[in-house]
Amino acid sequence: MDTATENQIDKLLKASGLFPDIEKPAQNISNFDFSNETILITGAAGSIGSELSKQLTRCKFKTLVLIDIAESPLHDLMNESEFENIPNVNFLILNITQKDALEHLFQTFKPTIIFHTAAYKHVPLMELNPLESIKVNIFGTQILADLAIKHKIKKFIFISTDKAVNPISVMGLSKRISEDYLFSLDKSNSTLFLTTRFGNIFGSNGSVVPLFKKRIETEQSITITHEAISRYFINKAKACQLILQIAKNDSDENKLFTFNMGNSIKITDLVERLITFCNKKQVEIKFSTLRAGEKLHEDLVSENEILLPTANKDIFIVKKRKNDVFPKTYLKNLSEITASMPNKDVKSILNSYLEHI
User: Fold this and answer.
1) Looking at the domain assignment, is residue 212 inside a domain?
2) How far apart are the two ends of the chain, measured CA to CA in Å?
3) Strand partners, 45
4) Worst-scoring range by mean pLDDT, 173-182, 323-332, 344-353?
5) Whole-number mean pLDDT of the chain?
6) Which of 116, 123, 133, 297 has the smallest CB count inside 10 Å?
7) pTM for the complete prediction?
């Protein structure tokens, strides 16, 4: 989404009264000093990856390595004004499931911090393509994490989702399995693994907000999958600032974090406010049924987790009540899935993971 449209949506959402904290965060991120760090961002052309990249241009850093498999979005990012006259920024087309290419990248650039944002994230699409979700979201993360340990990366920051809590979708399951794999890695190795888990991003690629806005402006009907469905939302700039703050965490313990996203917002309330502030009256709201993998409400923590405060009121530690042993043989089962296997059988194998957590 272009910056002008994004700013317009921010203003509209702020005016709706549903999101009192929609403003861009006020903290001066130029105080974040990464001057000794070579920073690798996967999925750099995506919503979170691109915002992290842009925020880092206002910080001190040694080198930025921005990778993505999507050529046109990465090309668009490369031509953003934030990167004008900024030295030591590298844009690379790279698939995170290709271990040899990643190995070459690690040997060439010697990154010290990794922000792993690359993922397939759209729930309905991943229900139809579960094998791709496994390959990218799970095995792509495993390959990166194992290489991070091998090359003695200082910090590995993984971007997860609230859909990983009590997961029912392919996407949520793939993220939960990745979370647990990272958490299981030996704490004695030199790499600190940190995971951030949060809800929907305003204006992200594929977000419902710009989709709703477009349909409202043309007075087309809007279909919501359930009258009571709700979601947590967070501002993209704020989320990325909190991610950078976590990256400055000097703890020597692998941790899982979530953010203060306020109250869960009913999608019907969101649509009705958007209609009002777009000054439209002829927009019909229809209701269908929940799609495969779709929850009525998202959760912040599971029954096995509790929230602990930090010095920052917007950041919480997610503490597990008991630490389960990650079933590494389960990854072998996933690796044996073939392209010819029916989607329902792939989903069944994914769901079997829940027996271990």
Assistant:
1) no
2) 37
3) none
4) 323-332
5) 91
6) 297
7) 0.93
- 58/297 Cα distance (integer angstroms): 36
Alpha-carbon separation of residue 13 from 69, 159, 267, 332 (angstroms): 32, 24, 13, 45
Q: What is the mean pLDDT of residues 157-178?
A: 97
* Helix and strand numbers, DSSP H then E, in the chain: 13, 15
222-255 pLDDT tens trace:
999 999 999 999 989 999 999 999 998 777 777 9
Reported as a pLDDT band with limits 50, 70 and 90, residue 304 is very high
Percent with pLDDT over 70 in the chain: 91
- Domain containing 94 equals 25-207+235-264+302-352
User: Region 132-146: what's the mean pLDDT?
Assistant: 98
Residue 193 clears pLDDT 80, i.e. is over it: yes
Question: How many domains does the chain contain in total?
Answer: 1
CA distance 35 to 28: 16
Give me the CATH number covering residue 307: 3.40.50.720
Residue 116, classed as helix, strand or coil, is strand
Looking at the DSSP bridge assignments, the partners of residue 66 are: 41, 91
**Has residue 225 been placed in a domain?**
no
305 phi, psi to nearest 5 deg = -130, 150
pLDDT at res. 20: 55
Q: Rounded to whole angstroms, how far apart are CA atoms 275 and 212?
A: 9
Angstrom distance (rounded) from CA 311 to CA 40: 27
Known catalytic residues? 163
Identity of residue 98: Q
Which residues have CB under 8 Å from 323's CB, separation 6+? 183
Residue 253 lies in a domain: yes
For strands 192-197 and 200-201, give the pairing: unpaired
Question: Are the CB atoms for 350 and 173 separated by under 8 Å?
Answer: yes
Q: At what angle do helices 47-56 and 71-78 cross, to 10 degrees?
A: 20
Q: Tell me if 247 is assigned to some domain.
A: yes
Cα 336 from Cα 340, distance rounded (Å): 11
